Amino acid sequence: MKKSILTLTILGIISALLLSFVYQLTTPLIAERQDQDKKGVVLAVLPESSNYRVVEKNGVTLYEGNKEGEVAMIASGPGFGGTIELIVGANPFLRQIYAVKVLSHSETPGLGSHITGEEFEKNFINKPFGDYQVVKRPAVDPLEVEVITGATVSTEMVVNIVKNAMNQMLVAYGFNPIDVTSAPITTGATDATTGATDTTGSATVTTGATVTTGATDTATSATDTSTGASSAGGGEE
Predict the structure, then answer these.
(1) Could you tell me which residues come within 8 angstroms of residue 152 by beta carbon, excluding any fewer than 6 positions away?
(2) What is the mean pLDDT of residues 58-79?
(3) pLDDT in the model for residue 81
């Protein structure tokens, strides 16, 4: 009995030592891999930079590229199914957006999930700062973003996050924010299915730091919240 206890104790000590060794060995490798992944994401939205440095201005973490004027920032906000996180690459001095890429989301597969697609991301490539508007037709103006079919809410929320990131970047570098409006958040069933055009009123964003949602659509009695409203259509956007 004593031998069994001693054997188990020794095995336990050896296992603990092995786990500690493996942890110490893999932790820096994991951290290095995460840094490499992050670097790839940041440089993907900074067209002429090969490296960057992390700075904080006005409480905002920014990634300044080694090409003068190129800056990236990570921003997030509510979507239809949960939080949407994206990265915006821009030049606040020239007031130009280089690219926008969605990093994470919980949007509806096959609908809102298309915010990660190249077709949608093209809406923000080499575009000027401004009050972007969502349209249900091909975009003809640089400040227009074509809605994703069946995912109006996801489209509008991404646009709101981009507008706010743009203004946070301007304020961080000492510029006045641009007057923009929150994209109207459509409530009810999928627009592509019902042809509905119910929207809430838009609210003016003065600092670019807040996405205003939560307006009640009296026609449908549905309320949009910061986590995204569920429609009577059973999960459609």
Answers:
(1) 134, 136, 186, 190, 191, 237
(2) 94
(3) 85
64, two tokens: 């300044």
* Span 157-191, pLDDT tens digits: 999 999 999 999 999 999 999 988 886 665 443 44
DSSP per-residue codes, 60-109: EEEEEESSTT-EEEEEEEE-SSSEEEEEEEEETTTTEEEEEEEEE--PPT
| Complete DSSP assignment for 166-180 | HHHHHHHTTPPPPPE
Among candidate residues 103, 104, 99, the one with its CA nearest the CA of residue 45:
99
**What span, in angstroms and rounded, lies between the C-alpha atoms of 189 and 37?**
38
pTM of the entire predicted model: 0.65
The residue assigned the tokens 């003016």 is 204
At position 2, the amino acid (one-letter code) is K
| CB-based contacts of 233, cutoff 8 Å, min separation 6 | 188, 189, 190, 193, 194
| Contacts of 144 by beta carbon, 8 Å cutoff, 6+ apart | 132, 133, 134, 135
Q: What distance in Å separates the CA atoms of residue 95 and residue 202, rounded to the nearest whole number?
A: 23
Spell out the residues 6+ positions from residue 48 whose beta carbon is closer than 8 angstroms to its own. 65, 67, 70
Pick from 208, 212, 160, 226: nearest CA to 59: 208
Distance separating alpha carbons of residues 51 and 78, to the nearest angstrom = 30
